[in-house]
Amino acid sequence: EIVLTQSPGTLSLSPGERATLSCRASQSVSSRYLAWYQQKPGQAPRLLIYGASYRATGIPDRFSGRGSETDFTLTISRLEPEDFVVYYCQQFEDSPWTFGQGTKVEVK
Amino acid sequence: QVQLQQWGAGLLKPSETLSLTCAVSGESFSGFYWSWIRQPPGRGLEWIGEVDPSSGTNYNPSLKSRVTLSVDTSKRQVSLSLTSVTAADTAVYYCARRGRGFYHYVDVWGKGNTVIVSS
Known about the structure:
The complex is a heterodimer of chains A (108) and B (119).
Chain A: E1 4-7, E2 10-13, E3 19-29, E4 34-39, E5 46-50, E6 54-55, E7 63-76, E8 86-91, E9 103-107
Parallel strand pairs in A: 2-9
Antiparallel strand pairs in A: 1-3, 3-7, 4-5, 4-8, 5-6, 8-9
Chain B: E1 3-8, E2 11-12, E3 18-25, E4 33-39, E5 46-52, E6 56-59, E7 67-72, E8 77-82, E9 91-98, E10 106-109, E11 113-117
Parallel strand pairs in B: 2-11
Antiparallel strand pairs in B: 1-3, 3-8, 4-5, 4-9, 5-6, 7-8, 9-10, 9-11
């Protein structure tokens, strides 16, 4: 099974700052099989990024993704108050489709 | 716009069987994979399995011996059955949709069902 390791576990930043979240895979994942999700408390996750770098419908352009093979990054260029929540990556390269353990972005 | 409505028992005793159903409204049913994903309290997401209305099922090996996913195409419903539950199965269970295109991702999620296993 492909293990996705997200870092850091918690990211403490201030509104307006830039957030960089990492997702590392235990084996190579094709970019088209890597997605990022945002989860707010008490809600289901929401698709942010698919294909490693394509924003889902309605996602603000302050969210961007990049990466390839085993290293992927989600960047939030300027944190808004509603962005201080949890983010997950997921791979579809090999079943079982696994998630990273999540990164929580909190207010510093 | 596709909507996923989930329902099922929320409180179970150890050794009982968890049963949840997800009804799909709005868009194509057979053109997608339908997944179940769970999230224990305060923890991350775990993929349980998915069903392709056209061809079959795909399960997480960690749960495969206890999980059955089924589909009723005429009712546009997918169901999850998890046998011999324990406290470790306490979680929010989500029904979700995955597309068949070049890019793979889950783009639609149900609201989730909280399932508590307690004696």
